[in-house]
Design brief:
The chain has 255 residues and is α+β, with helices and mostly antiparallel strands. Helices cover 28% and strands 21% of the residues. The structure holds guanosine-5'-diphosphate and manganese (II) ion (2 copies). Guanosine-5'-diphosphate binds next to α2 and β8. One manganese (II) ion binds next to α2 and β8.
Amino acid sequence: MELTTVQDMVIQAFGIEGLPLIHRGDDLAALICERFRFEDGDILCVAQTVYSKSRGYTRDLSAIVPGEYAERLARRDNEDPRFVQAVLDEAKEILIDDPFILTELPFGHIGVRSGVDRSNIEDGQVALLPPDPCAAAKELREGIRKCSGCDVRVIITDTVGRAFRRGQTGNAIGWSGMTAIKDFRGARDLFGHELKITEEAVVDEIAGFANFMMGEGSEGIPAIVFRGCGYWEGHDNLYFRKEEDLIRRALCRRG
Ligand code: GDP
Ligand code: MN
Ligand code: MN
């Protein structure tokens, strides 16, 4: 296995067209395989929304009884208190609740409104993030292997906001078959200097372009395949530990 980021400096990207509206119980891997001929080493990016819908990680708003805290935040933001309760229910820890709700989820992701979303799902329902997105990626990877016989790698993506800059981008929330980080530490730059701190979050870079191809609306393209990304070595510690996260510390000191 050659450890370059890009093989031959050409990467192909395929949007998988014609997938139906996804519902609980649908076999996503099979639906994708029916529409795309995989090759070994392909990287399949799947939008969190469709994975969550296929596995029933959704909630009916009508079944949610908001508590007093949710009611208060909902009044302030002119929101549906049941939606706010769903956001609070997903949180392991609430980092801030003003001017918006920012939480940490049990699997380590920190996101606005716990990643709970009302778009691209039937009225009256919300989509939740999968509780273990790396396990989700692994399950899809095995599903694709079963249908196609190919050894693909999988990233579960989500559209997220970020600090310091306007605009959302795609991030990887789960991955399988690759490390999240490509570790450059110990490598040399053009002038022979040793790289001491560079750890590239490659799964997020790939998810970002997948998200660009998916769009955010009615495009109906929740799965993108990249061919020719090559292989890398690194590690999976994508999320800062609580005590090393400076931004989190600064935010939480504020309140
Ligand atoms: P998120 O980024 O994971 O929260 O997902 P989005 O709601 O932004 O959707 C990403 C892409 O998937 C867009 O092209 C949507 O139109 C598409 N999409 C969402 N749900 C479905 C579905 O059930 N079926 C199909 N075919 N596409 C969907
Ligand atoms: Mn989402
Ligand atoms: Mn999106």
